[in-house]
Amino acid sequence: MSIDAIVYVVDDDAAMVESLSWIIESVGLKAKIFTQAQDFLDEYKPDQPGCLLLDVRMPGMSGPELQTKLLALSATLPIIFISGHGDVPLAVRVMKAGAIDFLTKPFNDQVLLESINRALRFDKITREKQQENAQAEAKFALLSPREVQVLQGIVSGKQNKVISSELMISLKTVEAHRASVMKKMSVRSVPELVKLVLTNGVQEHATQD
Amino acid sequence: MSIDAIVYVVDDDAAMVESLSWIIESVGLKAKIFTQAQDFLDEYKPDQPGCLLLDVRMPGMSGPELQTKLLALSATLPIIFISGHGDVPLAVRVMKAGAIDFLTKPFNDQVLLESINRALRFDKITREKQQENAQAEAKFALLSPREVQVLQGIVSGKQNKVISSELMISLKTVEAHRASVMKKMSVRSVPELVKLVLTNGVQEHATQD
DNA sequence: TAAAGTGTAGGTGAAAACCCTCAATTTCTA
DNA sequence: TAGAAATTGAGGGTTTTCACCTACACTTTA
Asked: How far apart are CA B15 and CA A157, in angstroms?
């Protein structure tokens, strides 16, 4: 598990990456350089925190193309585009696709660093949310099919006897499942359970009666 | 209460607004035209659904200035910027500030209408969320201070006896407040209550013991 | 001043949830 | 194939919630 954030720089211009990595490292951040988008794609691990400084125009895979591939991989790494050309439609397109910033050359060092900081903060909270979500999903995966049904009943506020009649099983069995659900989801009260289910995308089908 | 969405057009170019409103009305949407940003600001009601087609450059208040003022009013009306000039930093700035699109002239009618539709869909779901939120807030406002404290206890999964000892009141009083809370919030079960509180921004201070 | 609302607290009893143990059947897996 | 997990069910107990009821002091409002 990596701790430190890495600022990935993907740009085919050797002088540019040199300059960028110098600026980045001057404030104590780690930089990792790629001169081709594909090289980055080959090496990047989705669970590595950081952000991506991405040139728009490059031989081979372009910046926007890389963005598309990362989206397809559902990698949430924040992307800061860097462009020397004033292409408004392109800038708007990549921003709509989720880029966190779009800088035009030449830009101030301070502007760059501010943008990187924003991206890293964004990445951090995104990862924290994903972390929580993954933990909830992991617990949820422990439940047997029957337990999931009972869980849904509980979360939609049904009493055990209602659940038992809907599932055509005995009240005692529902109680058993219910206790098992609380244990596996590691919660001690119904409100905690509801929160866990609601705040993490676990869908609730609200089985109607 | 207004039912139909209105596409507001704010642009100082008479020929442009003429053309825009023609396109908009050709697909059965209502258009409302302003040649000055201030005129729009004077007349717009925040609870009117719709979207805003906004020129960037105008004499008097500019498009981005109007966006800033709307943000300050926490008006969530989606804004589609229209610009004839390729100013990338400006486009990026307004997109980061929440604009839903940024079109550069000349643009295809189809592109415009697609963007308007997206904006209207966005506005619709935003308003639905705000609606739910407002209803929950309204119910929440009915609660007395003591009832709010008890509500927080319930939502954080505390038993009545725990709440009673924390608030230094009798168990019986907590029960009374609890019943009152359920009634005023018009829910029948604790899970429903938790959902209502969680999904609508009602903060829960998790009163620590 | 009277009525309404709030906060307090008690009683009774039913219903529900929670806790434990035990055990039979089936189904999955090492 | 044997053991583990899932599903089912039951007995018997405690604890908690819930639904009624009553009551009184205090504040705000009509």
From this structure: 59
Strand C bases near protein CB (under 7 Å) are 5-11, 16-22
Tell me the pairing of strands B30-34 and B50-55. Answer: unpaired
Q: What is the DSSP letter of B74?
A: T
Q: Answer whether residue B127 shows pLDDT above 60.
A: yes
Its pTM stands at 0.88
- How many domains would you assign to chain B? 2
Residues A21 and A114 occupy one common structural domain: yes
Same domain, residue pair B114 and B151: no
Mutate to test the interface with A, among B194, B200, B202, B204 (most CBs of A within 10 A): B194
Residues A74 and A170 both lie in one domain: no
Average pLDDT over residues B4-13: 95
Q: Which of B89, B78, B109 is nearest to B5 (CA)?
A: B78
Clarify whether residues A37 and A76 are in a common domain: yes
SS3 label, residue B58: coil
What pLDDT is attached to residue A3? 57
Q: Is the CB of B159 under 7 A from strand D?
A: yes
Point out the nucleotide closest to B154 (alpha carbon to C1′): D17
* Same-domain check for residues B195 and B168: yes
Residues A124 and A146 in one domain: no
The answer to whether A159 CB is within 7 Å of strand C is yes
Q: Would you state the pLDDT for residue B205?
A: 37
CB B157, CB B124: distance < 8 Å: no
B200 neighbors B191 (Cβ within 8 angstroms)? no
Report in angstroms the alpha-carbon separations of A186 from A140, A178, A183: 10, 12, 5
Task: Read off the amino acid at residue A45.
Answer: K
To the nearest whole Å, the CA of B1 is away from the closest chain A CA by: 31
A192: contact with B, CB 8 A cutoff: yes
Supply the CATH number for residue A174's domain: 1.10.10.10
- Verify if strand D has an atom below 7 Å from the CB of A106: no
Spanning CA of B148 to C1' of C8, the rounded length in angstroms is 16
